[in-house]
Write a structure and sequence with these properties.
Order of helices and strands: HHHHEHEHEEEEEHHEEHEEEEE
CATH topology of the largest domain: Antithrombin, Chain I, domain 2
Structural class: alpha+beta
Mean pLDDT: 80
CATH architecture of the largest domain: 2-Layer Sandwich
Strand content: 25-35%
Distance between the termini: 21 Å
Low-confidence stretches: 1-42
CATH class of the largest domain: Alpha Beta
Helix content: 10-25%
Largest sheet: 8 strands, mixed
Number of domains: 2
CATH superfamily of the largest domain: Antithrombin, subunit I, domain 2
Length: 353
Amino acid sequence: MKLFLVLFLCATAAFASEADSKSLLPANSSQEPSTKSFYLFLPDTKEETEAIIKSVLPTIQSDQYTLKTANKIYVEDNLAIKQDFQKVATDVYQAAFQSIEFAESVEAAEEINRWVEEQTNDKIHDLVSPDALDGNTRVVLVNALYFQANWSIPFKPVLTSKATFYAPNDEEVESDVMFIESEALNFYESEELDAKFLQLPFLGEGASMTLVLPNKKEGIAVLEKQSADVLNVPEYKQEFVQVSLPKFKIEATVDFENILENLGVHAAFNPVVADFSGIAGAPGDIVISKVTQKTFIDVNEFGVEAAAATDIVAPTTEPPPATQIFTADHPFVFYITVNDVVLFEGRVLVPNY
């Protein structure tokens, strides 16, 4: 999730000239263009942004999990992209370019969606609708993110059983709940957030899923209002924890136009004032019309989008009894990180599987 936003914001802001960056400032702002980082959480200069991205991308790869981050920029056939933009997109963001005729909207959408399916192991379909493309479309930025990893401490399928999950609006649903009797894991309970944190490691150094469970069954709404604190790494203590976690699959589509507009980003969507001439064309030629992200995640006994592992050796001795209990039987937040880079962030309201 995060890498898609980084690509989009960098392609429209960090690549941009001073005139371009003003399009990403909140309306009626008197701030200088460099302060766009305050609103969009980017570094102050495009050089800093480029340096960070270039240093981060190599650190999130491993031979023990699969992470594919594929970026592609589709450009209208008759639009000349400026060389500086092409160089940074290719060298820093590892993005490929492809010319396409957006007026042929059905064929163009099929071409883009086929590429996305290939990059995500056929898990994400129909990212771009033909209705979103027409003869006025100039540039489409696409980021495909695919992650597959096995738990370093897998759940035993034989222990998975049916249990009640307390969903919003007093709904009770039956779910397949995975179980660990006792295992040494990073655990933290936050009084400020009134929530428990549990870190489940993957095979591969620095990769893990963090679960944030509010103590109150209806506490998810309060927790989501404090997302910055939720994403801060707590002062974990390794404890023996009993874990009950439902299996879940999530396939979601998010349109970011309203989110960005709520942050005050208006000019970028307005052809009268938008100026991305640092990318191509003249002021007003490129306008952001749609920013869409589609995500698929599958959490089971073996990991995320994972099959049964054959090379995991079970411990020969039983661990001590659990001193903490983590029972995810009501809505919770989760996020996946690799070397402190947040790849996925989401919530489970109803654990469909």
